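To: structure subgroup
Subject: Chain for Friday's discussion

All,

I'm putting the inputs and outputs inline so they're searchable in the archive.
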Amino acid sequence: MQQSITEILRGWFGLSRPPFHTVGVLPFILGTFLAYHFNSSISIVTFALGVLAVILIMLSTYHSGEYFDIREDEISHHSYRSNFAGGSGVIQEGKLPRSVALWTSIISFLVAGVIGLILQFGLETGPYTLLLGCLGAFPGFFYSTKPVRLVERGFGEIFIGFCYGWLPIASAFYIQTASVHPVIHFMGIPVGLTIFNVIFLNEFPDYEADKATGKRNLLNRCGKKAGKIIYCSISLSASLLMMLSPFFGLPFPAVCFYIPIFFVSLFIIMKMMQDKYEDRKTLETMCALNIIVNLGTTAVFIAAYV
């Protein structure tokens, strides 16, 4: 019996993929840190509820993907296992029923909405609190959910860039101060560009499975050759903006702290231009480093103000 409970808990952990929550939580921490930096105080209760809402929105997003991407994930699971694409594999391995993913996605979405109500009307965090929350919750929930499925529209990746870039930084700052500092508008661009690239590069391992099931995401629409140009262009744009950050009001140390991240980014670009995305082991390494570039970009802004 104990072993059964352990397996169920492992299934829940695998389905929720906690390590991937960092790409949403860290920008939220950045926004909260900036609120403290510019205003000298923050509400811990507001921060805790905000983080919980962010995690619930990501759970809703990930679990809806597990439910609605079942066909392509099944193909990926048996042909090309990846730690960064093709779903968690929990449903395919029979660790949890498929219906669990749908219901937990809906419940997470609704609970996040309740937290939004508490923040806006209970803690009086500002009249735009719910709006900011909806800007993240609805694109996240409908990224994979039928009939909308933003992932198949060719611009779903852009929504992800916004929802994991500017939005969590601005939302965290706003619920603490009821305003958005101008510097956040700049920060959101490189963070958004790098998370766009995380999603985009993660489509490479799933390319054949997505193509076989007619999943018309951005990579399947443009193809791998054009895809590598898009990736490299976005990556270079993000790096250029980071190097120019002092001209947009950010502390100069941001440039110094970013240098190691820049070289990691260049390494991935080099591998992309060499078509190394066709090699499974190399692509897996590139996907891992790609997440480091995104998290590192966010961490650089925190370190610069520290």
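Points worth raising on Friday:
The mean pLDDT is 91.
The radius of gyration is 19 Å.

D.
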